[in-house]
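## tool: complex_structure
## caller: assistant
## args:
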Amino acid sequence: MLILKCPYCGVACDETELDAGGEAHLTRHGPGSSDNAFEEYMFMRENPRGVHFERWRHAYGCGKWFHAARNTSTLEVFGTYSAQVIEPPKDIREAISAKVPGWRWRDFA
Amino acid sequence: MSEAVSALAGSSAHGFVDVTEAGLVGMVTIRGDYGNTEFRDKVATLLGLNVPDQRQMTTGGTDKLLWMSPDELLLVCPHGEADARVGALSAGLSGVHHLAVNVSDARAAFCVKGTASGVREALAKLSPADLRASVLPVGEVRRTRLAQVPAAIWLESEDRAMVVCFRSVAGYVFDLLTQASKPGSEPRYF
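## result:
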């Protein structure tokens, strides 16, 4: 059972109160982009064993989207943060580094 | 105009807690930017109630103002006055980005009354929310899930909770609460 804290409501939400939104921090490539860039955006996803960044929506609550950083193998949650950022904030990265030294996820480390 | 009726016309059930459909309750959804002091000030002046802090509610006279999300408030007022409140809000907030809608007839409200532990236990059977007194004190709003449908829960006092859900699922929620409060089925956890 996964429990994530909604950064907007501040409540500890059960997984069943949330909608999973897939991978976080994707860069959108739309019309006019190269085929390779569009393919990368449309289909290519990380599937790590370990540190992962995801989007979640507080569906049975405020209805807002937010980001979560968690460990897919231990189910440890490093933290949740606003959806209005393009990269994980410093405190989240430090929390991950404290637990998983040398972690790397896409361009973040 | 036709006569307003609540979803279940005040049905009630008696188990280890009493479940009663609350009848006609006025509810007005107010949306806007809390960061905008003009919005906050005008709402406070128009309703005579301060904009509540996160997950809290403010009470005054017959009205309650509940924090529903970072940009949504729920005004609970007498059913007959909901339209007047919407009129006052719409006029007073003109020029400020906002939304005020009378949702009274789109919702159903239930009152769950009994012992302090009974009320929390009946709700905890149906919801994944943490209903311990240390996490959900009296007067705090928790939007969550009751079995398969969304609902908002708050405790008016230790032995009385209010549940608000969509009107279309009122029968379902009433059955859930009735079943969860069946005598002899107390989990005796709280």
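## assistant note: Chain A has two helices and six strands. Chain A touches chain B at residues 8-14, 16-17, 59-64 (CB under 8 Å). Handing back to user.
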